[in-house]
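$ ./design --mode recover --in tokens.txt
reading tokens...
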């Protein structure tokens, strides 16, 4: 009885090894699940994609801009202050 159990165990282990070898050779890799369906936006300063609900929001001339952090919002404001064509009334 013990011999039967040991031989079944070895057969099962061999089956798993062969299956793993053929799975790698076929080129099929598991496809990652698509991200959750949420609105994402790109930070205009650093280029990071963030969820709208987690973003820091700044408004300029009625247009909303989304940032990953207050640091990026401040950099955006600094760029507006240093551009020659910017008007002094716009704030982010």
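writing sequence...
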């Amino acid at each position: 009885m013990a011999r039967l159990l040991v031989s079944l165990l070895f057969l099962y282990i061999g089956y798993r090894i062969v299956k793993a070898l053929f799975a790698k050779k076929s080129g099929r890799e598991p496809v990652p699940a698509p991200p959750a369906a949420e609105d994402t936006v790109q930070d205009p300063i650093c280029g990071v994609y963030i969820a709208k609900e987690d973003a820091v929001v700044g408004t300029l001339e009625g247009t909303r801009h989304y940032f990953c952090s207050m640091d990026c919002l401040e950099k955006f404001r600094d760029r507006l202050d240093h551009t020659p064509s910017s008007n002094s009334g716009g704030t982010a």
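exit 0
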